Amino acid sequence: MADNIELFTEDKLEYCFFPNATGFIQFRVRAPHDAHLALTTQAAEVDPMYEVFIGGWGNTKSIIRKNRTKPDVAEVPTPNILSEGEYRGFWIRWDHGTIAVGREGDPAPFLSWADSERIPIEYVGVCTGWGANGNWIIQPPNATQNGAAGRPGAAGLAGGQCWVSASSGQVPPSGFAGGEDNGEPLYVIRANFNGGLIPGKLVPSHGQAYVAWGGAENPVQEYEVLCDFLGEWRATSGGNIPPNAVPAGQSEDGEALYVGRVVHDGSLTVGKVQPSHGVLYIPYGGQELSFTDYEILVS
C-alpha cells in the first residue's frame, strides 16, 4: 500500500494536484483557517470543478463552490473547525454529482450538496491562502476506500461501507439483504433520484430497484447495492437516530438519509429514514408509506 502524502502549502491559493478517481479522500490538515480543496477533471483549475473551503472566512464557515462562481452552492457555520496547533481530520466523498464533507470518525457529513450535472472527477487539489499556511497528511486512495478500491463500479463511504454500482435487477455477490417479500430477499440500495441520493430496496425478480419519493414508489434501473457489510438493525422511532446509524445518502436539500425497514402487509421492506420528518418512508404498492416506529441500520 502506498504511503501517506505529506505536504506543506504556502499562503498562495495555488492548488497542488494529485490523481484520485476513487470518489473518496480522507486527510488531516493543520492550519489556522482556509483549507481549500478542488475536485477537478484535470490537474489544473479548469471548469467544470468543485471547491470545498473548510474553515474559511476567519475559521467561521465552510462552503462548496462550483466553477469558482458565487453564490456558493452550500454553506454551513463551522466556528473553529481548523487549528493552527493540531491536525484535524476530514473526508470528502463525491458520488453521482453529490459532494459530501465530514469529520474524521463521523460518518455523517456536516456539509453536502447534490448537483444535477455529473462531473467525472479525476484529480484532487489542496491549498491554503488568505494569510494561512497548511500542513497536510493525505491518505492514498486505496487506504480510504474501505475495501472498495479497485473494484469496478465500487464507491467507498466513510464508516466502512461499500456501495457497488448495478442495474436491471443485478445483485453483486456480496450484496446486503435487508428485507424479504414472499421468500425473496430484498437488498439495500441507494439511487440518484430528483436531485437526491435516496436509500431504497432492490427486488431482483422485478429487474429493478425502488425508492420512496414524492408520495410514490419510484422504480429505478440504475442503483448501488450495499455490499460487504456486517451491520445490524436497531429498533427506534421518530427522529431518534443512533450515533452509529448508517448514512446512505441525502435528500435533494442536502439532509443526511439513513436506511430503515419495517414489516408491512407481510413484507419486511427497506426504505429511507429522514430525520427531519421523524419517519421511515418505504416504497410499497406504488406508494410512499410512512412509519414512526421502525428498525434502523447501524454499524
From TrEMBL:
Residues 12-141 form the Farnesoic acid O-methyl transferase domain. Pfam families: DM9 (PF11901), Methyltransf_FA (PF12248). SMART domains: DM9. This is Farnesoic acid O-methyl transferase domain-containing protein. It comes from Hypothenemus hampei. The lineage of its organism: Eukaryota, Metazoa, Ecdysozoa, Arthropoda, Hexapoda.
